[in-house]
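pls design
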């Protein structure tokens, strides 16, 4: 700056923003002036990724995440329409870090368009699920206001109706009518599949034209890769989310994935297909495992598939599941772990040999209520065991008891069905959207030692593998003390 009028408007900005503003002034036609500096500062302050109006402690909190991810976190904080605080930024940073681990592309933001906007609005004010269908979270959608919209979207709350499905697509593949108001530079939008079909999008008879999506990605050099995990998964070093979201009722109680989605995804936890991510396995370089132990080599080649949803839920079209399995089979240098809470219908598919198919239990079924009697649980386990036994082609089946929220009881029906591995883990803290539309904080939680010991005993007796996750803090301390206690009195 050449004078005080130019420097005055820059003085209160962080150093990086001062440099950006001055560069913009120098790039403008003519000589620098105080008025030009002021206009550039105002433009900066209206940018979604500007931190110029943040307090210093909030800007410091943003440094806890890599520079490449700061713009996304900044935009999300500014979008709240309220004063940004250090606590808010810290919460978003932690959520974004978790999403980078869990979601294949690192929580890529997308704009929701068309009828999907109404679905998101309804999701944000949902009451209790209607009785008789625990997979249905929305009962009354009058909150949307318009009668036509209410009729259109009230249909999917009934168990005998098909619920709508969202899809994330490159903007260039979506009909112009839906993206007319989307800001320039947005590379991805989320739309409802049925609406895309009616408007001439890449959908025919409710079936996504996956080849069309693949060709578009190839032409525009869009090659999304998988994300590496940490001990939050631990049995696999990569994760791929070719689908996110689900309708299971437990997402209102303790689901860490629903908490991540609330903070990071424009559509929240509404089930969404990501067909561009079908290229994940092909686009990610297969790790060199030479020199590694057998266990670590397996981990480096293993992928946790759809950690942010349920690929085998009733709302997922069969053709999409088959497309995912086809990719797994073609990329046989990877080993893929699948998990579901809905094993019914697994027999419809032939799984490739380079995968394992698992079932999630929490010990307080159904969905956080813990209302099953021992007789009901035995009947449920017998049904689940039979469904896992009917899995065709996979290397093995397994159980995941995480979050471990209650005594799982007798697991013998699963061992009789051939389950070869059991993984157990604690409950992670999360904040998610409750059934009444309010935010609910679900704290971290550990199982009782007796519950974990019961599983360990059953696993040993069955001769199957046991995997204890790093977040399981309840561990036995087995020391071979002699019977007597030195210096103790007789009654001790």
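designed seq:
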């Amino acid at each position: 700056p050449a004078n005080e009028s130019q420097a005055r408007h820059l003085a209160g900005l962080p150093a990086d923003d001062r440099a950006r503003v001055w560069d913009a002034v120098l790039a403008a036609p003519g000589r620098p002036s105080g008025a030009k500096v002021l206009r550039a500062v105002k433009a900066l302050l209206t940018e979604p990724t500007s931190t110029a109006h943040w307090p210093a402690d909030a800007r410091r909190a943003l440094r806890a995440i890599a520079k490449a991810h700061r713009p996304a976190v900044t935009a999300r904080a500014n979008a709240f329409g309220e004063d940004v605080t250090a606590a808010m930024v810290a919460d978003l940073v932690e959520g974004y870090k978790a999403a980078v681990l869990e979601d294949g592309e690192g929580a890529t933001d997308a704009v929701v368009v068309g009828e999907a906007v109404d679905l998101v609005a309804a999701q944000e004010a949902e009451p209790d699920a209607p009785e008789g269908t625990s997979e249905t979270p929305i009962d009354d959608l009058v909150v949307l206001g318009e009668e036509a919209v209410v009729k259109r979207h009230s249909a999917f709350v009934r168990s005998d109706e098909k619920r709508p499905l969202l899809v994330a697509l490159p903007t260039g593949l979506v009909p112009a009518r839906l993206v007319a108001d989307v800001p320039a530079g947005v590379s991805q939008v989320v739309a409802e599949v049925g609406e895309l079909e009616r408007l001439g999008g890449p959908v025919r008879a409710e079936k996504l034209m996956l080849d069309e999506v693949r060709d578009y990605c190839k032409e525009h050099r869009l090659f999304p890769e998988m994300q590496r995990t940490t001990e939050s998964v631990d049995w696999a070093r990569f994760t791929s989310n070719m689908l996110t979201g689900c309708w299971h009722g437990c997402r209102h109680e303790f689901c860490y994935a629903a908490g991540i989605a609330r903070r990071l995804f424009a559509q929240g936890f509404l089930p969404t297909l990501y067909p561009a991510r079908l290229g994940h396995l092909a686009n990610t370089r297969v790790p060199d495992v030479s020199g590694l132990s057998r266990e670590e080599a397996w981990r480096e080649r293993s992928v946790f598939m759809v950690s942010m949803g349920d690929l085998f839920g009733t709302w997922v079209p069969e053709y999409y599941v088959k497309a995912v399995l086809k990719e797994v089979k073609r990329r046989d240098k990877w080993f893929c772990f699948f998990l579901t809470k809905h094993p019914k219908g697994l027999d419809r598919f032939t799984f490739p040999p380079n995968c394992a198919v698992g079932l999630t239990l929490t010990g307080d079924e159904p969905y956080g209520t813990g209302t099953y009697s021992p007789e009901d649980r035995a009947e449920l386990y017998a049904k689940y065991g039979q469904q896992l036994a009917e899995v065709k082609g996979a290397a093995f089946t397994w159980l995941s008891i995480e979050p471990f929220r209650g005594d799982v009881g007798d697991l013998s029906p699963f061992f009789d069905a051939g389950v070869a591995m059991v993984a157990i883990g604690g409950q992670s803290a999360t904040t998610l959207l409750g059934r009444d539309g309010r935010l609910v904080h679900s704290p971290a939680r550990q199982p009782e030692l007796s519950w974990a010991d019961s599983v360990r005993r059953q696993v040993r007796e069955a001769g199957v593998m046991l995997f204890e996750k790093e977040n399981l803090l309840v561990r036995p301390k087995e020391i071979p003390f002699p019977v007597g206690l030195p210096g103790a009195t007789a009654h001790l």
